DNA sequence: AGACTCATGTAACCAGTTACATGATTGC
DNA sequence: GCAATCATGTAACTGGTTACATGAGTCT
């Protein structure tokens, strides 16, 4: 019985502060969701496994007006295991992007519907970007974060998210200019095609 | 029995030209691998399913000096199913990036080892970028590709790959500057910390 | 009365990875 | 002789998703 990546993800959260399974499920949605996701149905069994391995301890907390909860705390063993894992070589992310798959066959699609597809996708990423930019404002300007503070990790991953979303949006935008000029040119065949240069 | 995303990925390749299972496995590594991956053990059963559904036909080809192969050809039904799928809303890619997970807990790591981690990662992405840039040179400059040509899809996905790798490398580089200046400052405590500005 | 949040679990299923299995030909 | 490429499959397992299950308290 060895430790899974999800296990490390949970330790990553618990090393900052003790949390319940429910809290962890929420945290796996919100700050961690951009780079690792998991549902509660996967989290609860994984926590039991971490406890068995002695990497976390659980304490049942009775609450008034709310159901009891189990608060999980990382052990010294857990911290050591996590710290060791961080600097081990990371497996390359196996990308699986449905939109790119669709883009590869875009020539088969009705251009009007393709435009709709990319407009929707662009908007989704613009919303995500707006959320990241909101989070960014919560960080102090001009005060550089030190790599030995927990906030450095949150900030660094946020920067990656911002860059990713900006690149994605730019790319969607470029596709849209291509599709739109194609549709325009089809409508009025006598004019020459416009030029749209792509740069990230 | 419905069609999986891998099924669409295979149709995406077969709509361009008929291929064997072996060819498809290779194509899933090379041009498609950046956004969708699959091993041959998943591909062969999936092809059988596509055949059952009448979306492809198989023809056994005898070869001299080599084992027989089964050449798969997309049917009209297959083309219709694929074309329809393309413009349906795409599910957002569920990101799973181990390096970002590690970055989130970077404060726990030994800085020297962390530098090694990001140098290795940066190099991997630089190699990937170099490969994409090589492929880019094979496209004609200044002649804009029309969205109704199959090459448009290949080119568009390539652009996304280039942008992604460039952003990733820039980000790795920024992390490295942070880690290195942190290590430097620890060595000579009297000098003030350097400034490194991040921009994508 | 109905929906939402807090709270924790299990079961069935599906997608994807690793390993097992076979066998001919080509190049070093 | 040994590894690599071509060629096609199956089996076992693991990671992850969807659905099932329960129940108290709050808000509209």
Keywords:
homodimer; 200 residues; mainly alpha; Arc Repressor Mutant, subunit A; 3-stranded antiparallel sheet; 7 helices; 3 strands; elongated; DNA-binding; PadR family transcriptional regulator (chains A, B)
Describe it:
Chains A, B: Residues 96-180 form the Transcription regulator PadR C-terminal domain. Chains A, B: InterPro entries: Tscrpt_reg_PadR_C (IPR018309), Tscrpt_reg_PadR_N (IPR005149), WH-like_DNA-bd_sf (IPR036388), WH_DNA-bd_sf (IPR036390). Chains A, B: It holds the Pfam family Vir_act_alpha_C. The structure is a homodimer of 200-residue chains. By secondary structure, chain A is mainly alpha-helical. The first copy, chain A, has two domains: 5-86, Orthogonal Bundle (Arc Repressor Mutant, subunit A); 98-187. Chain A is 57% helix and 7% strand. Chain A is built from seven helices and three strands; from the N terminus they run H-E-H-H-E-E-H-H-H-H. Chain A has helices spanning 5-14, 21-29, 40-52, 76-86, 98-104, 111-137, 150-187; strands spanning 19-20, 56-61, 69-74. The first copy, chain A, has a three-stranded antiparallel sheet with strand order 1-3-2. In chain A, helix 2 crosses helix 3 and helix 6 runs antiparallel to helix 7. The longest helix of chain A has 38 residues, at 150-187. The relative contact order of chain A is 0.09. The mean pLDDT of chain A is 93. At the A-B interface, helix 1, helix 4, helix 5, helix 6 and helix 7 of A face helix 1, helix 4, helix 5, helix 6 and helix 7 of B. The first copy, chain A, binds a DNA duplex (28 and 28 nucleotides) through residues 4-6, 20-22, 37-42, 44-45, 63, 65-70, 94.
């Amino acid at each position: 019985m060895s430790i899974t990546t999800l296990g490390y993800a949970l330790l990553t959260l618990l090393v900052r502060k003790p949390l319940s399974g429910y809290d962890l499920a929420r945290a796996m949605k919100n700050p961690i969701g951009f780079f690792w996701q998991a549902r509660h149905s996967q989290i609860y069994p994984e926590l039991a496994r971490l406890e068995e391995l002695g990497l976390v301890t659980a304490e049942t907390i009775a609450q008034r007006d709310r159901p009891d909860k189990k608060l999980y705390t990382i052990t010294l063993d857990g911290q050591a295991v996590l710290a060791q894992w961080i600097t081990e070589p990371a497996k390359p992310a196996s990308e699986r992007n449905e939109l790119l798959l669709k883009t590869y066959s875009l020539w088969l699609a009705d251009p009007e519907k393709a435009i709709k597809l990319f407009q929707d996708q662009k908007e989704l990423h613009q919303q995500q970007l707006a959320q990241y930019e909101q989070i960014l404002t919560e960080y102090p300007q001009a005060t550089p974060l030190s790599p030995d503070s927990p906030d450095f990790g949150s900030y660094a991953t946020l920067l990656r998210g911002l860059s990713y979303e900006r690149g994605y949006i730019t790319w969607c935008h470029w596709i849209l200019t291509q599709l739109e000029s194609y549709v325009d040119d089809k409508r009025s065949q006598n004019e020459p095609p416009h030029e749209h240069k792509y740069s990230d």
